[in-house]
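User: Now give one protein:

AI:
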Amino acid sequence: MSPMREEKRADRLRVMQLYQQRTPRELAEQDAALWARLRSWLPYAEAGSVFLYAGAAWEPNTRVIAEDVLARGVPLGFPLCCADRHMVVRRVRNWAELESGPHGVLQPPPTAPLMSVDEIALTIVPAMAFDRQGHRLGRGGGFYDRFLKTYGGLTAGLCRSFLLFDRVPQSDWDRPVDAVLTESETLLFVRSECPSQNEMDLRGLVHRE
């Protein structure tokens, strides 16, 4: 195993250990505070469409987010992972449409309508952990890194504060997010001297929020 893979493996083990130290009540309180922060975040509140995910146990509960997006009539997509290690985005109109997929993760049925990458205004990206530079520790499948190569909209990560690390290991193909939200802070990242429209929007948010 390469040093990078070993480092990621160690961090994934660390995530699970930290998660298991929290009580269900603590996790629920953190998720409620995180939801309150996301709900008032302008890119989320103003997004014309959202690409979400059904969180695993160590990730924030995203059902309340899905129900809010749907209640506002905003198009909502979920990932469907394919055999070729790519994923597609399929639109759902009700949380109940999701069904158990690999490893018990909820996903849309393959008959749900497709959403193209160009239709998605905001992607909320899952991770086992994030760092303070917007890099993410994924599960190792590379599905989102492949997707983000072709995606030009805004990206955000939701992270319980005890899983916001100073640094997570990153490979050349890893794609950071534009923002990370925890229960207590919102981190925005502008990475270039010649910013894209997304980064210009984020610069504006520094002054608006």
Remarks:
- The two ends are 44 Å apart (CA to CA).
- Residues 3-20 form the longest helix (18 residues).
- The mean pLDDT is 86.
